[in-house]
Amino acid sequence: MFKNLPFEWQVGLRYTRAGRRSGRNSFISFISLISMAGIALGVAALIVVLSVMNGFQKDVRDRMLSVLAHIEVLGASGSLPNWQEVARQSFMNPAVRAAAPYVESQAIMTHDEGFRGVIIRGVLPSEEPKVSTVAEQVKQGSLNDLRAGEFNIVLGRELARAMEVRLGDKVTVVAPQGQITPAGVLPRAKPFTVVGIFEAGHYEFDATLAFIHIDDAQRMFRLDAPSGVRLKIDDMQRAPQVAYDLARSITSDVYVRDWSKQNKNWFAAVQTEKRMMFLILALIIAVAAFNLVSTLVMTVTDKQADIAILRTLGASPGSIMQIFIVQGALVGLLGTFIGVTLGVTVALNIDVIVPFIEAILGVQFLPREVYLISALPSDLRWADVGTIAALAIVLAFLATLYPSWWAARVKPADALRYE
């Protein structure tokens, strides 16, 4: 089977196979298997952990984008009187699929003796579903119940729970802009009727965001035009580039921001966590890979007579190095292959494996009443798999260099002196 291979490969493969059959080398074989298993477990663990972290990131991002637009174009002065023209210019970019005006401002909401700081977003119920999935997130009532002049409001579930309000209850929204009276500057307050409760699954939005009709928002905050236009594009991953192109192409005085800029700190924290987790778990692979050093050192010690014979037959030091590099690299390749197979299998079936383990142990890792996400999400990315596999192979190869170099320095006369 291996007759056509160079003799260095044939000897290296023979040493790898013979270690398992020879009784005197059983300990060396055991260490070699431990090294292979360590590499496999490290690779599998890194693939699974990164897939789960990617899954959490994707799940939270999707929950954010159920409320946020891919891109927002805001008027530099605080309002956008020519929003229709801005929307028309935005549609000239082939990536833009939909547009909807909006008003957004901070306010204070009161009910009975409770009060909360909230973000009021005025929307057109007929246009908002084109740029977000808020209408689908409304669990009680309907977004279409927001009608101009009726001063109705849709609250996030956590906000409604904190304010202790239900459908039909009245809440008072206090605008930050006061009104001048003979008695001085007084805050402007307006009662609203709760006609809907939404749940985006993201606490920040569920606890601070409320929707009203855009006309009511303009009257409430004394605006003569919407704050800006919310855009939906064909690929949310291209949002930063599309936002940059729009900022250059729109002729009005506007500020353009994409969804990643609105949550820049959160995404930066997640990326930092992923990098640190990668480094920590990569150490497992490194430890297992460098176990190959001890395995090969013991092999070189045991095979010194064989090395001396090969040298007397004309084998060069480079050929001796290749023999032991082949032996160590084969262990690394097999460990990496097993680890990739195991890690990919677990990552693709984690939605079945985790419930099975929970059923056996009688526990729930993510209780629904505590966490918004009750199941472990997984998002396997083949780029991550390739990076992890390459890292494991490189570390295994590096671990073979010193023992192989030491084997190449063995002197035939010294090795055969006591044989």
What does this structure look like?
This protein has helices spanning 7-21, 26-65, 83-90, 134-137, 157-163, 203-208, 214-220, 239-249, 259-262, 264-302, 304-312, 317-348, 350-361, 382-408, 412-416, and strands spanning 71-75, 96-111, 114-123, 138-141, 152-156, 170-181, 184-198, 209-213, 228-233, 254-258. By secondary structure, it is of the alpha+beta class. Strands 2-3-8-5-7-6 form a 6-stranded mixed barrel. A hairpin with a 2-residue loop joins strand 2 and strand 3 (114-123). Helix 2 runs antiparallel to helix 14 (382-408) and helix 12 runs antiparallel to helix 14 (382-408). It is elongated, with a radius of gyration of 32 Å.
Reconstruct the topology from this structure:
Elements (H helix, E strand, L loop, with lengths): L6 H15 L4 H40 L5 E5 L7 H8 L5 E16 L2 E10 L10 H4 E4 L10 E5 H7 L6 E12 L2 E15 L4 H6 E5 H7 L7 E6 L5 H11 L4 E5 H4 L1 H39 L1 H9 L4 H32 L1 H12 L20 H27 L3 H5 L3
Parallel strand pairs: 3-8, 5-7
Antiparallel strand pairs: 1-9, 1-10, 2-3, 2-6, 2-9, 4-7, 5-8, 6-7
